[in-house]
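Explain this record to help learners:
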Amino acid sequence: MYAYKEKLKAINLYFKYESYAAVINELGYPSRLALRNWVEEHKRFGDVKKNITRRAKYTEQQKQTAVDHYLEYGKCYARTIRMLGYPSRALLTNWVMELAPQPRKFKRNGINLTTGEKEAAALALLTRNTSAQEVANNFGVSREALYQYKDQLLGKDVSSNKVKKSHDTDVNQLQDQVKQLREEIYYLQMQKEILEKAGEMIKKDHGIILEKLTNQEKTRLIDAFRPKYKLSQLLAFIDIPKSSYCYHKKQLALPDKYNDVREQIIGIFKEGKRRYGYRRIHASLKNIGIILSEKIVRRIMREENLVAKSIKMRKYNSYDGEISPAVPNVLERDFKADKINAKWLTDITEFRIPSGKVYLSPMIDCFDGALVSWTMSTTPDAELVNTMLDQAMQTLQAREKPVVHTDRGAHYRWPGWIDRMDSHNLIRSMSKKGCSPDNAACEGFFGRLKNEFFYGESWLGVSLETFIDQLDDYLVWYNHERIKLSLGGISIVKHRKTLSCVA
């Protein structure tokens, strides 16, 4: 039933297009016959009839009473209509569908089921858990027809017992699969929790490999999950014999005899700002009277995850071509010196931070690795190296004429550098072109410097001036406080004092 406005809209479009098809394509309604009738009616009477809304014949209370009676007294339409005297069967059916929608029994009188419906009915008959009559009622057919479908499609030899047995087999297989999947989920959940807990307890940065854990670490890991998982499952998953687990469990229950030393090792590591490995920490302990093997120190550091900074490659290159003739390599990679101020090494290294670049030019004494002098600047110019050389030469005694070894960088081939060297009778020595091992001792210092001071730190928001101040503090600390194993585990300045070389 179309509204009055919808009819007028269709009629007006027809008068505009003069085509029934065009109107129906645009509006999607009505049928061609209905539109033609509307147009004819409009031509004859100048308008079309308006829809008449009839007042409801039955109240909502009457509808609800009829539906309640139907549901309460056997769901029989005829009885409800006979007892109440209203409504029609069709109207009562609509009320039931509206107010009490639910599955209803139905019959198909003279209507044949499709092949698919027959197959479904036959399968339901053979796999039923109820009576055959209930299955027939659900499909709206008689009990006899249901068995006929089974005989036609599956044959008379197929009984419900055989189908049920096959059905039970399928169910058992599915149950086995569900059980297997649950076991896999349980195993994966245990694996996930163990790996996460191992990461928290052992605190390794590059992931956890259970096979590489020590038996003591595995024992601690198992104890963390004993309340939740069985011991046999944990031993098998973490791969540790039960005897080893029991042994380390007893060992862990004993007091930690290295507890005090452990705290001192952590303190030394933090004071050194993560720059000391186990050898220097072992030497530091020895200096304060604590005798402990390097193996124990290394083990405690591993347990506490005390890892020194790693070395990275240098990038700055000061080579700028053959500006002046190169001098021979006097040192020939012999960086050992029998006295102070006999062999000096120098080079330039670059520090790149978000604020910019800083360049360092130090002078290193081969005798004990002391920093004779150093300068820092934001540009690697001649003033950087010349000022450093002037400061270094001020520390020399009258008869001291050290060999100054450099690479073939442009700074050491400019006239300013050469004039200063000649005026103080210092001996120049240069590495071969592109051969960094010829100045390996200086390169080694730069590696230690960046490993201990630069790498692994966040320099975001640090100005160049602040960075230069911090670098200068490190270089002072390097001379006065940093211990060297080659000097017997003491600092450079302290070593020189023992030799009466520093007042």
User: Anything to note?
Assistant: The chain has a mean pLDDT of 82.
